[in-house]
């Protein structure tokens, strides 16, 4: 993810620096965006349109048509209906309206023009012919979402997920609707499915922890803490000195501090219920946070130190036997 | 509730740039500035962009603690929230989480405002709508009377927000706005946007 972000940034900078239109660069950018699935519609509709409009003969024929489809979708995303219509006419001339991909684009054009019912009709005709066309099903769901009819969107997504249980992007979508409606319990369930599908992606553990924390309550804070810790096992700031990118898992470090702090503040929690390992974890997180701040944003040192001070937990009241072992680490 | 709201031009640009950077998702952020005690006039001097995907408790709390600290050091106040909705069809109905945060801010601050990003038009030159707390719980609706006036006392060169935003978009500068979420993914970024210039 991060390497892709860096790659995108370099494309972005090159594009804005070059004075003349560098069609090879634009083609490569569009290729990269297709692969990485970033949604950068503005830049694609701006540069990509010029590419397929004026440099179409230079492109590889097969790729040219793919590019056309990509640019149309991005134009629709930016409400540039006329551009999209012009390009779509070219596709219709080549492939006729019998092609499912062209039909779907026509449906999306309707959506953009606000002709929602027409769009739904187009998708339903496709589905009658090809009942397993998942893209058209997803378009229908997104229509309901865009209209703010969340219940219907959830209902359709559930039907969809009964067929395509392994589509974790659909689970993500369902989770995002549940989060939007503040039904965190359902969102947690979705993220469990997502983690089963992609067990080594640290990001989903972070999100799971954040949702669990949002639910509140001492048990959920500890649950969040566990997931944060696991995400750090998958993406640890300690791995970063060898890489030339700053650590990306700050949410987990902050999350650990907040979970332990909130656990101590909550009515069923308390500092004395913390395990020693959890106290150590807190110190580790605080130290990491300070180190990262010192290294990358020294100007925010005051703010971050104040944050650490505010969220610090009181000393655990220990039995005299433990004092000797505990004292030095807590002092630090 | 406040009687009137004015906003610095740079702050206004930042709000719109944050919205333009993430056209496909809902965004939110905090309004920073001061309140005139006499006539409850709110002056938005700066904004701090917060999130562009989900707004969930842990990082929001972290952001609030740090921003409070920043405000204390610099003699500013948190005076409200701005948001941009994901959907155009119900853009003037803030998301549940935004309403919940606004409720909390409202009960803490009394004088605060919730601004929602909308289309820049002649009858809405700032592209911001003031939302008022409605009687029932979690209700926030558009205030028909109040408009956000653009304060140009700070810098008085170019005040055409539409043209300014067009320039920014052509140069791709909107992508260099950093919100708190970006910072947590890359700690070398500055969520205060100190070096950002339009």
Automatic annotation (TrEMBL), chain A:
Keywords noted in UniProt: Endoplasmic reticulum, Membrane, Repeat, TPR repeat
GO annotation, cellular component aspect: EMC complex
Alphabetized SMART domains for the sequence: TPR
Membrane topology note: Peripheral membrane protein
Compartments (UniProt record): Endoplasmic reticulum membrane
Residue span(s) of domain EMC2 TPR-like: 102-215
Cited InterPro entries: EMC2-like (IPR039856), TPR-like_helical_dom_sf (IPR011990), TPR_EMC2 (IPR055217), TPR_rpt (IPR019734)
UniProt key word Endoplasmic reticulum: yes
TPR repeats: 100-133
Superkingdom per UniProt: Eukaryota
Function (record text): Part of the endoplasmic reticulum membrane protein complex (EMC) that enables the energy-independent insertion into endoplasmic reticulum membranes of newly synthesized membrane proteins.
Known partners and oligomeric status: Component of the ER membrane protein complex (EMC).
Family: Belongs to the EMC2 family.
Protein name (database record): ER membrane protein complex subunit 2
Source organism of this protein record: Polysphondylium violaceum
Automatic annotation (TrEMBL), chain B:
InterPro entries: EMC8/9 (IPR005366), MPN (IPR037518)
GO cellular component, one term: EMC complex
Domain (MPN): residue spans on this chain: 5-137
Family: Belongs to the EMC8/EMC9 family.
Protein's UniProt name: MPN domain-containing protein
